[in-house]
Amino acid sequence: MFDLDKLVNDYLVPFGLKILMAIVIWIIGGIVINLVARLVRGAMTRRNIDPTLVRYTESSLRIALRIALILSILSVCGIETTSFAALLAAAGIAIGAAWSGLLSNFASGIFLIVLRPFKSGDMISAGGVTGVVDEIGLFVTTLTTADNLRVYIGNTKVFGDNITVYDANAFRRVDLTAQLAHTVDLQDAVARLKARVAQIPNVVEKPGVDVEILEFNPSGPVLAVRPYCHNRDYWQVYFDTNRAIAEVGGTAHWPVPATRQILMPPPGAAAGVPAATPSIVPGAGGAAPAGTLPNSPAP
User: Taking every annotated instance into account, which residue ranges of this chain make up the domain Mechanosensitive ion channel MscS (predicted)?
Assistant: First the structure.
């Protein structure tokens, strides 16, 4: 004969109590997890820890506590958790084999967050991309390039390659050149360029502007013009320095550099025929008197 009281007292009531206890534990556990996560986040924020590391730590802590809470609820409900642990371990091995690339990015992301070779807001060059770091994620690092493109780079590629951090030091060097003609007074040119480039906004005073002879070519000497500035002012100083070089040359009336060549008479000239006078065939700089040395100042 069907005994309803026994069914209710022996099965439904205990099962209902377990369900009710599981719900209570889930609610209380969620409150405790949120409280612990907020406390950890606040403590790390007060210590001025990198925001990316704060988010990563908080996320990892929440996941670990949620897993522990679920196992506790299963245990309260009378479900054996040992088999679940073995199942999770087997699933972890299978997932790890299938997602080896993702796990490699994950491991590299942990190293990037812990070692902190750069931080959010730095301008870096990594993985063949140059830009400002928006976020260091668990799997990818997000950059915004100078032409306002967002690029996602796998952390394995970032961590496994050379990383250039442009904001790490107080200043960086701007490398430019100035081509001069042979007739320009080098000492005067160096003095003029140093004085003018030093007046450009955001050029740091120390170290001072470097203007030195870099090399000589057929058109004349080449000067290296190298001011120093903070990375955020690099392109402004770069373009202003180019304009300054053009302004100084125009104010001093420097001639336009031009390549010149000398034409020699053929070695087997016929006897009795007067040898042709060597002549200078200039480029864009105009004609030079016959018999003068190549690239020499005009008399």
Answer: 102-164
> CA-based angle 106:128:135, to the nearest 5?
45
The Cα angle at residue 241 between residues 133 and 295, in degrees rounded to 5 = 135
CA dihedral over 28, 33, 38, 43, signed as positive or negative: positive
CA distances from 278 to 156, 273, 274, 286, 287 (A): 66, 15, 12, 17, 13
pLDDT along the chain (299 residues), means of 10: 60 73 86 89 80 76 84 74 67 64 80 86 92 88 93 91 90 94 93 95 92 93 95 94 95 87 71 51 44 45
Residue labelled with tokens 């070695």: 267
| HEC letters along the chain | CCCHHHHHHHHHHHHHHHHHHHHHHHHHHHHHHHHHHHHHHHHHHHCCCCHHHHHHHHHHHHHHHHHHHHHHHHHHCCCCCHHHHHHHHHHHHHHHHHCHHHHHHHHHHHHHHHHCCCCCCCEEEECCEEEEEEEECCCEEEEEECCCCEEEEEHHHHHCCCCEECCCCCCEECCEEEECCCCCCHHHHHHHHHHHHCCCCCCCCCCCCEEEEEEEECCEEEEEEECEECHHHHHHHHHHHHHHHHHHHHHCCCCCCCCCEEECCCCCCCCCCCCCCCEEECCCCCCCCCCCCCCCCCC
Cβ partners under 8 Å of residue 217, min gap 6: 179
| Per-residue model confidence (pLDDT) at position 201 | 95
Residues in Cβ contact with 183 at an 8 Å cutoff, skipping those fewer than 6 apart: 220, 255, 297, 298
Cα dihedral across residues 184, 190, 193, 195: positive or negative = negative
Token digits of residue 184: 């320009």
Give the Cα separation of 229 and 243 in Å (integer).
Answer: 17
